[in-house]
Write a structure and sequence with these properties.
- It is a single chain.
- The protein has about 60 residues and is mainly α.
- The protein has a domain of about 35 residues.
- Helix content is about 30%, strand content about 0%.
- The longest helix is centred in the middle third of the chain and has 10 residues.
- The model has no long low-confidence stretch (mean pLDDT about 85).
């Protein structure tokens, strides 16, 4: 496993703000694929760490 050190400039806990920043090309964020699938399909967003997955949770 490789590690990547980052120095965040923005730290947000509001997903809409994170999405706005990513759409503007400011950074990356972690969201469920169902929340961003249409943006990935149109090419507006790109999956950059496909091997990195979160832990599934039942709703």
């Amino acid at each position: 496993m490789r590690q990547l050190k980052v120095k965040p400039v923005f730290v947000l806990n509001y997903s809409q703000a994170m999405l706005t920043m990513c759409r503007a090309g400011v950074g990356i964020f972690f969201q469920p694929i169902r929340a961003t699938a249409s943006l990935v399909q149109t090419g507006e967003l790109e999956v950059v760490l496909p091997q990195w997955r979160g832990v599934p949770h039942e709703v």
